[in-house]
Amino acid sequence: MSTININSFSFNDLQHMLDSLVKRIHNGEHVTTVFMCGPSARLGISFDSNRSKFVHLMSEFNEQNGLPFGELVFFDPELPQTCPNFNEQCRGSRARERLALEVSHIIVFLLGIDEQNLGLKTRVEFGLYADYGNVAVWAPESGFRTGVMGWNLTKEFSIPVTHGELSELPPLCLEVYKRNQVVPSDGQFSSSYVNIANQNLFYVDCALAKTFLSNTKGAVYMRIQPYSTRNYSQLAMKHNMSIRCANVKDKYIEFYRWNGKTPNMVPPYASAIGGGCAMILNPEHTKVLMVQEKRYGSNELQLKFPAGGREYGELAVESAVRELKEEIDLSVALQNVHMVGGYDQSNAREGDINDVFMTFLVEIPENTVVRPDGVEVLKCDWYIVDDIINSKVPNVNKFNAQMLSDYTSGKVPSRKCVVESTRNGKRMKF
């Protein structure tokens, strides 16, 4: 537990210290920051702000309840009146307080008795900070007068308030802390989702930072509900996230960042995506060329046909031909490619995007030189067709094995692909 008198620092020194503190939190340390608002002592006026008492009660509550806040750090804006540069420090207090407020998990208002100025300045602060979403209030009935406006704000923003003993405030702080927690969830293909309703910005910032550290295999998405009132797009820019979509049906706005070590594998958002793979057989159709890749989103190896998603303006057959060149350095003319099958799967990607994928036949001699790229494809080799079909070879892509079986058994024919121009592009017929 520690208390930082933020107005006893210069702006730059405070910023440096807060940056170091936030870095600790982003790296996973369990630290909770608490900003203490309320009437302050003034020259010539004897007044107890109750901050020291609150720090003691909050620390005691934390220890008695199993450290739900972890390490507590309190921000106290009270400027010691013995400060040699009292007037100068006062002039910059608003900027320093703003720095600390932006990195506070909880903002507490200690609205004790303030007979001298009726807490006018604190009422203004209360109106400014009410929408932060992380405020808790202690306001004894016999003390501070917030007025009708203040109490309307507590109802509008669901701010917990206690009029009893100061010891009743720490449980309210825990309520605020739990309400703002952001728990990422796992998605398809090693992705992570940070789903936002209306949590405080600092909680979301910390959740994103921790998720980027923990997930280095796939994409990290941030989904924002449309009724959210906070500027989450600002956080998206801070964390180098791109906007992905505004989903009208399910009512959310989505940002994402590819955080894997491979090139970005998140497809453009649409109602459907597509691609193609190449079933490479020898002229006798007794052997098939398979490539070994890491299964998307894991370290597990699998044997499969060379494959990939379409790029902008690309036909499925063109994507298959391009992937052959990129993955195993094999050049194939479009006129030598035939279509043998595929699938159209609903809700295959991100829970609501259809996946249309086609399989194409390519015939080459077994002595054709192929070179794995060493990035996506680790190695490639010829396998006996019957061994693949009869599961004598481990870790084979099931869809590829089934398509190989259907074609070699005569269940599905091959069709020549014909690419022709259209007014806006091109199309494939078969």
- CATH architecture grouping of the largest domain: 3-Layer(aba) Sandwich
Distance between the termini: 72 Å
How many strands, what sense, and barrel or not for the largest sheet?
A: 8 strands, mixed
- Secondary-structure-based class equals alpha/beta
Integer average pLDDT? 86
The percent of residues in helical segments reads 25-40%
CATH class of the largest domain: Alpha Beta
Q: Total strand count, please?
A: 21
CATH topology of the largest domain: Rossmann fold
Number of helical regions: 12
Give the amount of beta strand, in percent: 25-35%
Report low-confidence residues grouped into runs of 5 or more. Answer: none
Task: Characterize the overall form.
Answer: elongated
Number of domains: 3
What kind of assembly state do the chains in view correspond to? single chain
Gyration radius (Cα, Å) is 31 Å
